[in-house]
Each structure stands twice: as C-alpha cells, then as structure tokens.
Specification:
Its cofactor is [4Fe-4S] cluster. Pfam families: Radical_SAM (PF04055), SPASM (PF13186). The protein is α/β, with parallel strands linked by helices. The protein has one domain: Aldolase class I (TIM Barrel), CATH 3.20.20.70. 32% of the residues lie in helices and 17% in strands. The protein has an 11-stranded mixed beta sheet. α2 runs parallel beside α3 and α3 packs parallel to α4. The longest helix has 14 residues. The chain is globular, with a radius of gyration of 19 Å. The two termini are 38 Å apart. The chain binds S-adenosylmethionine and iron/sulfur cluster. The site of S-adenosylmethionine (SAM) has 19 residues, from β3 and β5.
C-alpha cells in the first residue's frame, strides 16, 4: 500500500480499514497549533493492547502511529510495526523528526515500517527555533532525519506542511526545500483550528486559495503534492472550490479525500476511540470496555456523523455545514463549523 492510497480510493462507510493510534500523547514540543487530543494524558498503549485491537479488525489494511510524539515510546512503536508487518498490515509513523538516529532508523527498517511522515513548516533553524520556542539544534536533527528517510531503501519519506498564517507566504519555499532534500511526497494539511487554540490564526478563503495556487505552480515535477482536509474549508459549488478544482487535473496534485469515521478511526493512548482526532475528537467508546469493531459498527454517534457528513463529492468533514452559534472570529474567516466537543476531564 502506498501513502494515501486509502484516501485516493475515496472509501465510504462500511469497513474499518485504517486506524490512527496515539500510542502516547506526550510530546517534546508544544506547537501552538497542535490539535492532538489531550496532550496531558499520561497513559500509554502497550504492544499487547494494540495487537488485541488489530486482531479484532478483519478489514484492517493500515496502522498509523501518531501522538503526541510517538517516538518517545520507541520500543512500543517497533513492537507494533513488527506485529503489523507479520500480519500484512501497512504502517506509518508521524513524527516531528527530532528523536531519530541511525540506530533507530535501522530498527524501524528491520521492523518493516512503510512510511515515515515528518512535520516541516520552516526552511531555516533560526525561524524554526523562534516559532516553536526550541533551540536551533532541533532543526538540523529534523533535516537529518528527513535525509536519512529519503535514503532508506524500504521506508517512504513524506513531509507535511500545514497551510496557516505562519506558512501562507512560504509554502513554495518549504516545498522546494523538501524537494532539495530528495522528498518526493509533500502533504499539504489544511489547518484545523484546534481545541486549544480557537480560530484566531485561521486564514480566510481568498488567502488560502492564493497560497495553494502559488504553491502548485512551484511544484517540482519529481514530486507529488497531497492536499488534506481541503473540504473542511471549501463548499462544493463555491467560487473558491471552482478555482481550485482544475489544479487536481494534474496527476502530481492529489486531492486526498477524508476517510475519518468512514474507513478510519483514531485510538487514543487511554483507549478512547474518536471519529477524527483533529476535526471531530468526539469519543465514541473505549477499547478497554468495548471491542473496537463493535464501536465502529454500533456507535449511534458515529452513524449520525457518517449520515450527516459523508458526501460523495468531497468526503467532507463538518466545516461546511452552517452553524448557528458562530463566534466573531469564525464569521471573519468564513468558517462554518460545528462546536467542538470538549476534551474529557
Ligand atoms: C499531532 S501531530 C503528531 C505527530 C508528530 N508529533 C508531528 O508533529 O508530526 C500529527 C500531525 O498533525 C498535524 N497537526 C497538528 N495540529 C494541527 C492542526 N491544528 N491542524 C492541522 N494539522 C495539525 C501536525 O502537523 C502533524 O503533521
Ligand atoms: S504537532 Fe506534533 S510535535 Fe507539535 S505539539 Fe503536537 S504532537 Fe507535539
């Protein structure tokens, strides 16, 4: 299975084919935009916990490990990847790239990891350090990790950049920087205003469209761009939607459909199951109480979500549905969002 192949199949509801697992919520960063659910949660899923979940899902094709920074629990990640590899299940790790070294790369390769996905929103150490409030030593670590992943004979290296006010004018620069490192797959993630952050940093639709058009014009021919969560912002039939659609005629520019709640669920480190960690962190069950397949098949809230949010054209998440209680900030950005469920106390 290749990166985003499930999203490119435009999977509707029916079979749970993918799970995203927050092995841990702990993280060595505190990104201002971070939408990871409950970063203060201190529980950790064991390899056995995850194996039990995997065994209960007959249609499972892909496991993505994403926290927090899951590489803080490196041995558990390796154990889960080995288990998936032995069962023919594709694996991906999402990482900030700061905790890897050669020995760890060798172990990930030996375990059979398929995709290493790095966050990259900057092109220089000084701005990276200033934005994240970390030391300038972090950025070269990320660059090394990306280069090492690119050089791997077995691991597919992916870089992800969030489109938000910090990167609006520099998306093309980050793309060229990643391409120069040898990265062939660049995911562009629309910012999902997080529970922690509110809506203040979100760009308006014109600025998002301008940035995307400029970025696609800068695409290096040897690379593929994958756009995620676009439908969270743009209503089909709108002028912005119409402006962007021709871009996706190019086979190097992929519209990644949303499979959250339909073919994928998120498993949090305390066993909570969510529809989508970023866009709809609504807890619909816990694997320590209920079998994950039973949660997927029987949750009335999941069924309601799929009924109201699934569209054949966009596979959209919730943000284009009108929402009566919009705040002034939401009105300013044109977002029409449902209220976020609150984080469990
Ligand atoms: C929560 S992080 C966990 C993995 C790892 N710590 C990292 O930063 O890549 C997973 C992905 O979610 C993205 N992300 C975090 N907050 C987001 C937000 N508010 N909107 C969109 N993407 C977000 C990050 O850029 C990252 O690529
Ligand atoms: S986005 Fe990733 S690196 Fe940043 S705080 Fe969230 S989990 Fe940590």
């Amino acid at each position: 299975m290749t990166f985003k192949s499930l999203e490119m199949r435009k999977l509707g509801p029916g079979n749970l084919r993918a799970i995203e697992i927050g092995v841990t919520s702990r993280c060595n960063f505190r990104c201002s935009y971070c939408g990871a659910y409950d970063l203060l949660e201190r529980k950790i899923l064991s390899v056995e916990d995850v194996a039990r979940v995997i065994d209960s899902l007959p249609d499972l094709e892909r496991v993505k490990l994403s926290g927090g920074e899951v590489l803080l629990e490196f041995d558990i990640c390796v154990g889960i990847i080995e288990y998936c590899t032995a069962h023919g299940i594709s694996t991906q790790i999402n990482s900030n790239g700061t905790l890897l070294n050669d020995e760890k790369f060798n172990r990930l390769e030996a375990a059979g990891l398929d995709v290493l996905h790095f966050s990259l929103n900057h092109t220089d150490a000084a701005r990276h350090a200033e934005f994240y409030k970390v030391t300038e030593k972090m950025f070269p670590k990320i660059v090394y990790a990306v280069e090492r992943a690119v050089a791997s004979p077995t691991i597919d290296a992916v870089v992800e950049t969030i489109l938000f006010n910090e990167t609006e004018k520099t998306m093309a620069d980050v793309h060229r920087f990643a391409a120069d490192l040898g990265v062939a797959k660049h995911e562009i993630q629309m910012e999902i205003p997080s529970l922690h952050q509110g809506y203040e940093n979100t760009l308006d639709h014109d600025r998002i469209c301008d940035s995307i058009v400029e970025l696609v014009q800068a695409r290096r021919p040897e690379t593929t761009m994958f756009f995620s969560c676009l439908s969270a912002y743009f209503r089909p039939g709108s002028a912005h939607w119409a402006r962007l659609q021709p871009l996706f005629q190019d086979p190097g520019v992929i519209y990644a459909s949303c499979i959250e709640g339909k073919a994928q669920l998120h498993l949090h480190s305390n066993g909570d199951v969510m529809i989508c960690e970023l866009g709809n962190p609504d807890v619909i069950g816990n694997v320590f109480d209920t079998d994950m397949l039973a949660i997927y098949e029987n949750s009335p809230r999941l069924q309601a979500f799929v009924r109201s949010k699934h569209e054949d054209q966009t596979f959209s998440c919730f943000r284009h549905f009108d929402f009566p209680g919009q705040t002034e900030a939401q009105k300013k950005t044109g977002l029409t969002a449902l209220p976020m469920p609150s984080v469990r106390k």
